[in-house]
């Protein structure tokens, strides 16, 4: 009984299965879907298709490779590091961080860092468009930067001025240039590999966008090459100038942070067991050696004076740049320390011109017993220091300093105008020197603040018994009534004014005219005699 039921049930199931299979075949024949049908339709492969992606497909990218992504991440990291270093160097031009003081101008290391940032930005912006032209230009830049590093390391004077900051900046710039070569080469390899893998062949064509990217990157790199070539030429000029011999010596001051140049001419003589006064020259807006020191040499030869010393304020001629900020009072302290280390002793007669008179007046107030005479040649009054401290002048000095490493004027003067080392170090072209520009910028930044406060304080404690001579520019007084008024005010610095002369046709540099020289030599002789009386009575 049970078996007969079971057989009947099996027969029914077999009939249902057969009917289902028949219905399924019928559905397939008529294209109707069943449970085994795909949910999404399958498109037939297009004619002539090989299964590869189109070359313009966004999926065809060198970024698919981890090595390319690794290089891009590190390039961005290097850009961030270089930018932070750039900011630190920019700040150090105005306020020197501990250990960051550059005895040179500080503009060379800043320029190398600017070049580094430029290279990295080009690499990041045009990362996916590698080109042989980019590799060649980056390699040329790297070669010149390596030459610059060799020059800095090989010339002791330049190595001393640039210090570890300048050396690190140029070496980092060279490394980054080589990194850009490597990066472009690896991206080009990765692009070719991905094109072969995903499209079946490397793509030899470029889109208009890619051509424009390659053209822009190449043009920028060519500009970088011109910049680095000019910087290499300027470094070569500096190496040549470093061999110029100087009279005198460089002396460490301010805790051995930098050196100043001091030179003394003549012998120490005595009168009635008293030392004869030594003339201390303080130049104005140009180095002492240019022409300011020459006029006093004739007084030395004629026997009016027996000994004189001249020095270069920080940043001028053979002196290093001082840390920023640097005021006139700091220069006076540097001069005092240099004289002490050189074994020079008073009494002293201070002869100064222009902006240098501010330093001399501060020096006088701090050495009341040793200063026995003061001669001011067209001096700058403390109430007019705001003219030197104008923001516009400061910006122009900063901008001129930034481009000074290119040395366009210096190179042009050396190649086409026959400018000598003397011209560039302390002569007519000294203003093109980065150290000189930074010194001017330092004076600008504190002229109407620190320096003014120092000289105002110096005036209140200046000895009233010190003999005083003032020689003013007639041209300057005529065209600037306020200047003449302030010249007259300075005649009251002490109660012993010997003379105030306004030389009719003399410019601000009074000694550049024959009449100016005659007046200055005559008044210096009178000042020496008056100072000797003060010395004997003391």
From TrEMBL:
A Pfam family hit: DUF2417
Superkingdom assignment: Eukaryota
- Which terms are listed as keywords in the entry? Membrane, Transmembrane, Transmembrane helix
Residue ranges spanning the membrane: these are: 73-95, 107-127, 139-158, 164-182, 211-231
SUPFAM superfamilies given in the database record: alpha/beta-Hydrolases (SSF53474)
Instruction: Say if the entry is tagged with keyword Membrane.
Output: yes
Does this entry carry the keyword Transport? no
Q: Which organism is it from?
A: Glonium stellatum
Protein name as catalogued: Mitochondrial integral membrane protein
For region Disordered, the annotated ranges are 1-55
Mark out the compositionally biased spans (Basic and acidic residues): 1-38
């Amino acid at each position: 009984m049970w078996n007969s039921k079971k057989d009947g049930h099996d027969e029914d199931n077999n009939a249902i299965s057969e009917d289902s299979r028949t219905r399924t075949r019928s559905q397939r024949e008529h294209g109707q879907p069943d449970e085994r049908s795909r949910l999404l339709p399958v498109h037939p492969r297009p004619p002539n298709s090989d299964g590869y992606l189109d070359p313009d497909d966004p999926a065809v990218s060198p970024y698919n490779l981890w090595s390319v992504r690794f290089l891009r991440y590190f390039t961005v990291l290097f850009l961030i590091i270089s930018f932070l270093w750039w900011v630190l160097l920019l700040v150090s031009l105005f306020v020197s961080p501990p250990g960051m003081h550059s005895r040179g101008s500080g503009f060379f290391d800043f320029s190398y860092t600017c070049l580094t940032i430029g290279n990295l930005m080009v690499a990041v912006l045009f990362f996916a468009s590698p080109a042989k032209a980019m590799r060649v230009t980056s390699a040329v830049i790297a070669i010149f930067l390596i030459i610059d590093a060799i020059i800095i390391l090989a010339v002791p004077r330049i190595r001393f001025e640039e210090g570890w900051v300048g050396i690190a900046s140029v070496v980092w710039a060279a490394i980054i240039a080589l990194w850009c070569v490597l990066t472009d080469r690896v991206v080009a390899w990765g692009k070719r590999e991905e094109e072969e893998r995903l499209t079946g062949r490397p793509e030899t064509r470029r889109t208009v966008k890619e051509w424009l990217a390659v053209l822009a990157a190449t043009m920028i790199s060519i500009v970088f090459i011109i910049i680095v070539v000019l910087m290499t030429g300027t470094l070569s000029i500096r190496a040549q100038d470093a061999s110029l011999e100087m009279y005198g010596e460089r002396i460490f001051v301010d805790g051995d942070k930098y050196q100043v140049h001091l030179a003394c001419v003549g012998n120490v003589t005595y009168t009635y067991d008293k030392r004869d006064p030594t003339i201390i020259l303080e130049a104005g807006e140009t180095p002492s050696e240019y022409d300011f020191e020459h006029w006093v040499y004739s007084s030395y030869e004629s026997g009016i004076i027996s000994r004189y010393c001249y020095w270069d304020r920080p940043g001028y001629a053979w002196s290093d740049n001082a840390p920023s900020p640097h005021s006139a009072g700091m220069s006076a302290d540097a001069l005092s320390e240099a004289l002490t280390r050189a074994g020079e002793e008073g009494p002293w007669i201070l002869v100064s011109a222009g902006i240098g008179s501010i330093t001399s007046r501060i020096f006088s107030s701090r050495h009341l017993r040793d200063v026995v005479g003061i001669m001011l040649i067209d001096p700058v009054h403390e109430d007019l220091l705001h003219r030197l401290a104008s923001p516009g002048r400061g910006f122009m000095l900063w901008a001129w300093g930034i481009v000074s490493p290119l040395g366009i004027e210096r190179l042009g003067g050396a190649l086409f105008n026959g400018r000598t080392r003397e011209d560039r170090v302390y002569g007519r072209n000294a203003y093109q020197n980065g150290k000189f520009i930074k010194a001017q910028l330092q004076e600008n930044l504190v002229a109407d603040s620190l320096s003014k406060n120092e000289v105002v304080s110096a005036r209140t404690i200046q000895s009233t018994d010190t003999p005083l001579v003032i020689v003013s520019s007639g041209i300057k007084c005529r065209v600037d009534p306020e200047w003449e008024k302030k010249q007259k005010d300075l005649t009251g610095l002490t109660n012993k004014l010997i003379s105030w002369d306004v030389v009719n046709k003399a410019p601000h540099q009074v000694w550049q005219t024959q009449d100016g020289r005659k007046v200055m030599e005559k008044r210096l002789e009178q000042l020496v005699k008056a100072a000797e009386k003060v010395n004997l009575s003391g």
